[in-house]
Fold this sequence. Notes:
Layout: E1 2-10, H1 13-21, E2 35-38, E3 49-53, E4 60-68, E5 72-79, E6 82-92, E7 97-107, H2 111-138
Antiparallel strand pairs: 1-7, 2-3, 3-4, 4-5, 5-6, 6-7
Helix pairs in contact: 1-2
Amino acid sequence: MRFEATTEVTAPQELVWDVTTDVERWPEWTESVRRAERLDSGPFAVGAAARLEQPRLRPAVWRVTELVAPAYFRWVSRSPGVRTLAEHRLEPLPDGRVRVVLSVAQTGLLAPLVGRLGGDLMRRYLRMEADGLKRRCERG
């Protein structure tokens, strides 16, 4: 199962990257995250982990598996029967704009069931995150 949301942001890529990787502040700009807590100190890098609490979902620990600043990061969360890989990708556009592509892919024995039951919620949360990120980065 794979879900995706895209938006274009009129802001420098570095600013969008800084907002995107400041995970603990996500609840300030997206209603899809109630609470976010880094589980380690130091820079946001491969191996960094965070615990996210989202409405209607169980709390999840996410661990960064790939990161190329300021272009993208991928992180993984695991629950019984499901592995979830999320990606935050920033693509530079002309005139200083940035295309933001947020995606979630689920694999594992229970992924088809989880995708069917929670797909609408997943799509809604990705849209909320994309729209919130756009508002936050463009507010000046």
